[in-house]
Amino acid sequence: MIHQNKKIMKFMPNLKTKKVMPLISIAAALLLGSFALVSNVNAEASLDKLKATLEGQIDLMKPELETKVKGLSTDTKMSMMAILAMHNRYSDKATLRQVMLEVLQDYQGIVMGIMTDSSEMAADSARRLANHRIPVGGLLPYLGLENINDERLSLLESFNDTVEGNSIKLAKAADAGDMAKAANLLAPITSGCVACHDVFRSKPGVSELLK
Q: What is the CATH number of the domain that holds 110?
């Protein structure tokens, strides 16, 4: 790990924010071994972008959230960084709810593409869903402090694999003209979305002022 950190620091000579160094080092070490997951981006540029992204996200966190994030295990931090590394669309404006509305729109685009036998519409919508925006501040600020722990966050990896992983498979099936296979992949994508909402989201629109 010490050797890896020395290599990583060659990519990040100007890192000055001490509080992000553990996260940066873990993420960078992970990415050095997994750049096959991130297409069309070279390693050095990706590390620089990840460094800047992490610094910006942590700077936006209130102290109570920052403390909870620092207390996460190395495994959880690496898992979160692996999820982050598979995305290249970061917003400095959109909230998680706004991002989820975009995801819903992309999901509906998949359904419309399948129902109209439009392989391009289905594939493009599926790829956008898999590479949805990361909201301002990252994912963690929107999950609630009660969910910022190793047990809860360990579920995100399986949700990500179910939703985004199957979205990529669906896109490939549509590209190949196998719309029946694409249609079959809608079920696990939907189940993954619902399961994630069950854990991290209360029922939307409910008023606390109702008896």
A: 1.20.120.10
Tell me the pTM.
0.77
Q: Are residues 59 and 142 in the same domain?
A: no
pLDDT tens column, 121-137: 999 999 999 999 999 99
3-state secondary structure the chain: CHHHHHHHHHHCCCCCCHHHHHHHHHHHHHHHCCHHHCCCCCHHHHHHHHHHHHHHHHHHCCHHHHHHHHCCCHHHHHHHHHHHHCCCCECCCCCHHHHHHHHHHHHHHHHHHHHCCCHHHHHHHHHHHHCCCECCCCCHHHCCHHHCCHHHHHHHHHHHHHHHHHHHHHHHHHHCCCHHHHHHCHHHHHHHHHHHHHHHCCCCCCCCCCC
Regarding whether 150 and 120 lie in a shared domain, the answer is: yes
- Residue 37 belongs to domain spanning: 1-86
